[in-house]
Amino acid sequence: MRFKSKLLVLLIIAGLLSSIKIGCSSKPVDQKQVLTESTEGKFKPGTYTAEAQGRNGIIKVSVTVDDNSIKEVKILEHSESAGIADAAIEKIPLRVVEGQTLAIDAIAGSTITSNAILLAVEDALKQAGADIEALKNKREEIVTGDVITYDTEIVVVGAGGAGLSAALEAANQGAKVILVEKLAMTGGSTARSGGKILAAGTDIQKANGIEDNADLYYEFLVQIGEGKINEKKARIIADTSLVNFNWLVENGVEFSKNIEALHPTRKPARGHYVAVQDGKVEQDGHGWAITQPLEKKAREAGVEILLETPAKRLITDSTGAVVGVECENVKGQKVIINAKAVILATGGYDKNPELLKEYAPLIEPVYATVPEGNVGDGLIMAREVGAKIEAHGGAILLYLDLSAGVGEVGGLYVDSTGSRFMNETDFWFTRTRILLERQQKIMYYITDAKGKLDNFDGLVEAGRIFKADTIEELQQELGMTELVKTVERYNTLAKKGVDEDFNKSPEYLMPVDEGPFYAIPFVQITSGTFGGPLTNEKAQVISTNGDIIKGLYAAGEVANGDVFYKEYPGSGSSISMCIAFGRIAGREAAQEIIMSRK
């Protein structure tokens, strides 16, 4: 029997793409490249078509040229993901024409799509007789020394779920807001998620006959937090989950009428998914269906959004109060945004090995599903102005099989020593907590000839999984010490029909006793981190000496160090937290500013 959630499937698919890196760029959307050279290539006038493989399928383009210039690039067909590939689809053709060049940086967060478009354009230009090497030469950009300055009341750094919520809430309170985002599109990790949020007491739950309330949600968060989280914040998340869910709906987010439990062992079901047009639960994950409506509402509320504008450092005054942020634009120009308050909503640090080593040393992800921009810049900026960093080594972390795709639980899980450590049918994030407690960076699924899948032989030959005629040989090959003893114990329990060690159901308690035997590695995959500047219940950042850092707020993943501990509660927990504290940060910052006007 399979117990894989939508998030689990999403991450396995992502893991299979782990050889593909998502690139990073810092070029803003609304600025043209200024080049010091003209294109040397000559063309055969006409319109040419070509195609290349994108992330989801073929991208077909047409390129129109005259004797000496590229006149137009059009995307004729594509099946790339809305909300993630949109920036590349829109901007890459424009930049080729504007710059008369193929030396275009990929759009950060849409590298695969960007590169596919460029490959297709290159093919079309070859048909036109172009000098491709000349078109690929990087040209020197003209950069002026001018500093660009903005004056506003609140600047929000990061345009994911928390940042968009903060910006929209602050604008609705009457504050003047600028939102800066380092990538070419809004959405952050929220847009790449499965599009699920936890909420208690919704009409959707009631329509499905599910009884739930804020108290039950709170008790669940506290239980998973093992007494190590800020219970006041857990209370806030639970108590506001219904209000925030309805707020999303009011702001254009559509949810399925269906609902999902985190796991068969975790009820009541409170996982609300974004809806698709036919009203069914979305299967392949589209968190952009949350962030795009929020972006639209933020713009309508007067929020100015500066894309491809990475923040570099916080600006403080002589008292230590935060009074703005220094950013950078496409040409390397300094962008100063003066403000009365800064809200950090920059996400986590999955893509920063140094920060992982410092704050989550047991985590070395083989693949991270987050944007390439998640390098912990908000954490670093806050730390530089004296913020206390709260982190306990956890993450939104799963140990997953990226090779065989095993889903059966008739075998057994073992750690690197060969010791069994849990009921194999329990929640996948529970195994994460247990393995972190055991200081394990890898685990294995052990099965025998009865559990063999059709793809095993090829994977053994490729060195992706391990095979041996006996458990003794398998133990030796993996360098384990306890595997033989563990399998013998497991088989004894299976024959009894009672798992005295971990209470696995007899239905799945099957002996592993028919050679050959297989070991399938499960490796670390992350979709977020735990840890960042400590905040109070008003989302104000706390210094190392316990004081509030005036003018500085933080919300979302960047400030979740005391909201989550070792075990992640499950899919939708982070977005629930992001919306809750994003709105709080925006509201609190705006109200303080409005009061100061009087």
Lay out the secondary structure.
Layout: H1 6-16, E1 46-53, E2 58-65, E3 70-77, H2 86-99, H3 111-127, H4 132-136, E4 148-151, E5 154-157, H5 161-172, E6 177-180, H6 188-192, E7 196-198, H7 203-207, H8 214-225, H9 231-250, E8 271-273, H10 288-300, E9 304-306, E10 311-316, E11 322-328, E12 334-338, E13 341-344, H11 353-359, E14 367-368, H12 377-384, E15 389-390, E16 395-400, E17 412-414, H13 428-437, E18 443-447, H14 456-461, E19 466-468, H15 471-478, H16 483-496, E20 517-529, E21 532-533, E22 540-542, E23 548-554, H17 573-597
Parallel strand pairs: 4-12, 5-6, 5-13, 6-9, 13-23, 14-20
Antiparallel strand pairs: 1-2, 2-3, 7-8, 10-11, 11-12, 15-21, 16-20, 17-18, 18-20, 19-20, 22-23
Helix pairs in contact: 2-3, 5-10, 5-17, 8-9, 9-17
